[in-house]
Amino acid sequence: MVLRRLMVAGVSLVATLGAAGLTTAPIATAAPQAAPAPGPVVRAISAPTADAPDVDVTKVQAHLTELNAIASRNGGTRKSSGQGYRDSVAYVKNKLQAAGYTVTEQPCTSGCASGAGPNLIAEWPQGDTAKVYMFGSHLDSVGAGPGINDNGSGSAALLETALTLAEHHPAMAARVRFGWWTDEEQGLNGSDFYVNSLSSAERTRIKAYYNFDMIASTNGGYFINHLTSAAAQPMKAYWDSLGLQPEENTEGAGRSDDYSFEQAGIPTSGYAMGAGARKTTAQAAKWGGTANRAYDSCYHQSCDTTSNINSTGLNRSVDGIASTLWKLAVTDSAPANDFSLSASPAAGTVDPGTSATTTIATATTSGSAQSVQLSASGAPAGVTVSFSPGSVTSGNSSTMTVATAAGTAPGSYPLTVTGTGSVSHTATYTLTVRGTGGCSGQQLLTNGGFETGTSPWTGDTGAIGSHAGQSAHGGSRFAWLGGYGYSATDTITQTVTVPAGCARATLTYWLHIDTDETDRVAYDTFKVKAGGTTLTTLSNTDAASGYVQRTLDLTPYIGQRIDLTFTATEDSGLQTSFVLDDAALQVS
């Protein structure tokens, strides 16, 4: 878990329940504990489906032993920029490939620490590709230690869950994708890069993301991210069935990789057992352990080894992960008829006014052949997509033609091809339109002064308006990002195509920063991103009495279609306001 400044508040409960002591002794199963002592009456929740297998915690611990050994061979650490991290990636990758997963190493080409290793993505190649449930954890450690609880525990639990899925090989109603993230300890950078690399269609297909960071803390509690959300319910149901009475993960809010997905509008949840915050008296009465002591006394230290693992909590976590996965993605029987869909080639480059073709292939993967209707989405203005034929019997192919108009703006456009039969599957085709060689000097941002409403800005558009307490640089409206005085994030985004043929692209904007922070420490930040790349980071330390014009060079993005994003992030302490106005993107 990445370290941020936090205000840790005490917690009081109306009633305390009977103690259920924590132990670090290995156990093979997580049988429901005895009923708690008399207390508040709660509605009974049915036990998880019997179809979810028990994940062998001793196998999870074997992975932790290997991660600890990898760290020992590499200076006692598995930090993202070191060989210990790369060896950890290789270990996990080899296990997954041998089990039949489609495994991809994704280099973090922007926003990560120098020399950071790749993200590792693994997908089980069965289930509806239009419905993806994703489970993730960061694989890197801090430089000070091997990171076996933080976050070998989450990484090893996910690895063994993935191997258990492959071993049982159940029929799948949805796709399951696993992610092991790089550079989390330097600022959630790996997961941030991954999420920003996804097209809007790909993000839409991810129905929920589940994060697991520090799930074996020796003095830990039982915490769930977004406890009352719909995404959290299968996870909560499992821990409720054990009588654990989990609480909201307030300590971890905004501090781990689920935050990257949350910022993109993807529902998130996950398990955690706590980091450097202290267990309350009420929590010790409920869960056991020691009050007024950190959940993990070895947090971010060299003593975070295999001796720093609560195997009972680890076991309860990994079985809850499996239970959640089975409830969301596994079905009792395979679709009677199913098929696959692919595009070959998966990309094409054209001049404006010309066209490209690709072959859309289908194959029957279960049952009998079926009729598949083909369609495409995501085409920009002036681009048409047609299929010949428009529907095929699975096992056959169609030719997709992508035609551009003479005035089609240069750029790169991901198109989503959908095949609809008894179920739906998708494939991605990326169209690149070359520039015409000339450049008409122009300003590309629409409503950069926020005077005409919120369109075409997306995200937290409630920040846009004429708000009391701040003033505009020009006109009467502006975007007030942040200023809450508690942990919060505001983001606004506009998608723009930077024409090819231009020599220069320059972004300018006016920003007023005011803050109640007094330390010269960057507690609250303001970032400008182009796609997945952070162009600049400002903070409360840059506060000034009035607006300051800022300038950024976007010349490297000429010929590209990008999401231009402004994000303000506050910690749990004093307020910092980032007031944005009169943004412009000029090309020449």
Overview features:
metal ion binding; 32% strand; zinc; metalloexopeptidase activity; hydrolase; 3 domains; Immunoglobulin-like; 588 residues; alpha+beta; 6-stranded antiparallel β-sheet; signal; Jelly Rolls
Q: How far is it from the N-terminal to the C-terminal residue, by CA?
A: 44 Å
Q: How many structural domains are formed by the residues?
A: 3
- The CATH superfamily of the largest domain appears as Zn peptidases
| Portion in strands | 25-35%
Task: Please give the order of strands in the largest beta sheet.
Answer: 1-2-4-3-5-8-6-7
Mean pLDDT equals 88
> How does the major sheet shape up?
8 strands, mixed
Spans with pLDDT under 50 lasting ≥5 residues?
4-50
CATH architecture of the largest domain: 3-Layer(aba) Sandwich
Helix segment tally: 9
CATH class label of the largest domain: Alpha Beta
Structural class: alpha+beta
Shape descriptor reads globular
CATH topology of the largest domain: Aminopeptidase
In percent, how helical is the residue content? 10-25%
Radius of gyration: 25 Å
Number of strands: 28
